[in-house]
Design brief:
This protein has 631 residues and is an alpha/beta fold. The chain contains 15 helices and 34 strands. The strands form 7 sheets. The chain has a 15-stranded mixed beta sheet that branches. Strands 6-5-7-8-9 form a 5-stranded parallel beta sheet, with helices on both faces. Helix 3 (71-87) packs across helix 4, helix 7 packs across helix 8 and helix 10 (318-324) packs across helix 11. The chain is globular, with a radius of gyration of 25 Å.
């Protein structure tokens, strides 16, 4: 079964696992995909000029006031942006930073930056120091940013970065309503103008200077390990992955299905799943306001939004669906055919509660920034709870055992090892710098012979379905014995009072590290840490994997896009271990667990007169970086 791609010869849709191999019978090169993301938009505008492309809410409480733009209008806005950047010196290898929350103008800004140069979307939640590092590493001097009217917090960071000489050209996005604030504070520091004032005459076609293999965008990897890495994507990476995501007959072009989007556009899911993929089918994307899923008003309005816009599908992280499972269904949501979940493991209880509450299937997907976005998907016809689905067509997967010398040995079906991905969506490398010829790229050991090391511990079953079991870097190594944290977490999640769980290694002077666990409790349940520790000890885990402690917390730490942030837990576990080791030493006033550059260290604060030698001696057997300060 096929459906038309804008201007193309046709491409398949698939609804069942066995369709993957059937689709691959036609070489990808014969699929007539657009070469660049700008060509995706141009084809859509040619084929569906008067269809609504995007509808953007000012915020969740005012969803009825959403402003819509057709595909013809979106193309015109994107061309204006591309012309404006090109006239100010942006070339196909020039990085253009984007630092703004989701709004009507940020979509053509993203597309226009990729058309004229290279888009570098940035997370406004990062600190100024991290942002400065990312600007330096990527070579960004042109920055599209939120005006003070749109986001005062972001504007303050832009002002600081400009004052440090980090950027020389700032183009401002402003709200579609309201007065503009003065921007004179950047005069003499950076050239500053409102982006859509700088575009010049409308209606002039933009000639795309890019080829399929050129860099389209640079994305930071989520920020779970100190300063995020910058992963480059080619136009071919993005177009291919978006095309594979769109090849789903449950949202066919003929139905003009609407997609709900609320993840920030600095995240690959937002760009590929809810921006580029819908363009290939001429679908409408309904964007939540600047706060997205962080808008507290959204959860009281979400089902009315689904009914009003006839939303067919949505994409979010597990924590969002856990909340939605408790939101009364106060509208007709029969248009919602399925919901997609990814970014972190889906607890079985969240799946059950959401599906029972809404009647909407919850389908898992899997991907990572270094693989462009999506690499596996689930099927409504064959859901297989506990799996994140089967690989997408034209992508390859294998599971290997990684030896100490770094060599790979392929494992048979069912064997747990490191997941490798190959194919057209594997990224060209991390950006480590920028010179006159463009970006300096380095795979940093992630890619070998075309295979991307995902770092995920996985097993592939006989049918090729992917079952994630943890992160290789999250392995707890107790006296040389490898412990998969997922086994500990699964044991705890079987307790009726436990809503979520995370296991990490705590430094130990004898064993190197030992497992400890952190849990959150389900609403209305009460349980003690001692009861949970006894429960998991009797659960049948191998003795080495039994956690030494279980700590109840209000919430497990996550990143801005909802991914588990285990470094924060490892830092807390290290702090507790050191604090316990120094408990009887005089002069120790405080112990801190600190995360930096992807690692954890412990800072011990002492008062004058304390014996730093005694402190260091106590900590000498811990395999962790420590620092002692005296005040």
């Amino acid at each position: 079964m096929t459906t038309a791609v804008a201007g193309g010869t046709g491409w398949p849709t698939f609804t069942a696992p066995e369709d993957v191999e059937r689709i691959e019978a036609v070489p990808l090169a014969e699929r007539d995909l657009p070469a660049t993301t700008f060509q995706v938009l141009r084809r859509a505008a040619d084929q569906w000029p008067d269809r609504a492309a995007i509808s953007v809410m000012p915020d969740a409480s005012r969803w009825a006031d959403a402003v819509s733009v057709t595909y013809r209008e979106l193309l015109a806005l994107t061309e204006q942006v591309a012309h404006a950047l090109a006239r100010r010196g942006v070339t196909p290898t020039t990085p253009v930073g984007i630092l703004a929350p989701n709004c009507l103008q940020v979509v053509p800004a993203m597309l226009g930056a990729q058309a004229a140069g290279v888009a570098v979307p940035l997370n406004g939640g990062l600190g100024s120091e991290h942002l400065a590092t990312l600007l330096e590493r990527s070579g960004v001097t042109h920055l599209i940013a939120a005006s003070p009217d749109l986001d005062e917090t972001t504007w303050a960071k832009v002002r600081e970065l400009a004052s440090q000489g980090r950027v020389s050209n700032v183009y401002l996005l402003d709200p579609t309503d309201g007065e503009r604030a003065a921007v004179a504070s950047l005069e003499g520091v950076a050239v500053t103008e409102y982006l859509f004032d700088a575009t010049g005459p409308e209606g002039t076609a933009f000639e795309d200077p890019h080829r399929a293999g050129d860099i389209a965008a640079v994305f930071h990897t989520g920020g779970t390990t100190g300063v995020p890495k910058l992963a480059a994507h080619t136009h071919a990476n993005q177009v291919t992955d978006a095309w594979l995501i769109a090849a789903d007959s449950t949202t066919d072009t003929e139905d003009q299905a609407a997609i709900f989007a609320a993840l920030p556009l600095f995240h690959v899911n937002a760009l590929h799943v809810t921006m580029l993929a819908p363009m290939l089918k001429g679908q409408r994307v309904v964007w939540a306001g600047p706060l997205g899923y962080r808008d507290p008003f959204l959860y009281g309005e979400i089902w009315k939004i689904v009914e009003h816009f006839s939303i067919a599908t949505m994409s979010a992280v597990p924590t969002v669906y856990a909340v939605l499972a408790g939101c009364p269904v106060d509208a007709d949501i029969s248009s919602l055919r399925f919901a997609v979940v990814g970014a972190s493991a889906l607890p079985a209880a969240v799946r059950h509660d959401f599906e029972a509450h809404t009647g909407v299937p919850l389908l898992e997907g899997y991907g990572l920034t270094e693989g462009t976005c999506a690499s596996a998907r689930s099927f409504a016809t064959d859901p297989r709870p506990g799996s994140v689905g089967k690989r997408l067509p034209y992508q390859s997967m294998r599971v290997v055992d990684v030896a100490p010398d770094g060599s790979w040995t392929d494992l048979p079906a069912g064997g747990v090892g490191t997941l490798l991905i190959g194919g057209p969506t594997v990224f060209p490398g991390y950006v480590t710098g920028h010179d006159g010829d463009g970006f300096v790229l380095d795979h940093q050991g992630k890619v070998r012979d075309g295979w991307l090391d995902t770092g995920d511990l996985t097993r592939l079953d006989e049918d090729g379905f992917v079952h994630l079991t943890g992160r290789a870097k999250d392995l707890i190594i107790r006296g040389g014995h490898n412990i998969d944290p997922a086994a500990v977490e699964d044991a705890l999640l079987r307790h009726p009072a436990v809503a979520d769980a995370a296991a990490v290694g705590r430094p130990d002077r004898r064993a190197g590290e030992v497992p400890v666990a952190y849990v959150t409790l389900a609403p209305g349940h009460h349980c003690s840490e001692e009861e949970l520790a006894a429960y998991v000890a009797a659960s049948g885990l191998e003795p080495a994997a039994t956690p030494k402690s279980v700590t109840i917390v209000d919430a497990l730490p996550v990143t801005d896009v909802g991914k588990p942030y285990k470094l924060a837990l490892r830092a807390d576990a290290a702090r507790r271990a050191v604090q316990e080791a120094l408990a009887d030493l005089e002069g120790v006033t405080d112990v801190e667990g600190v995360v930096g550059d992807g690692s954890v260290r412990v800072v011990v604060h002492t008062v004058s007169g304390a014996d730093p030698v005694a402190v260091r001696k106590r900590l000498a057997d811990f395999a962790i970086a420590t620092e002692v300060t005296t005040s």
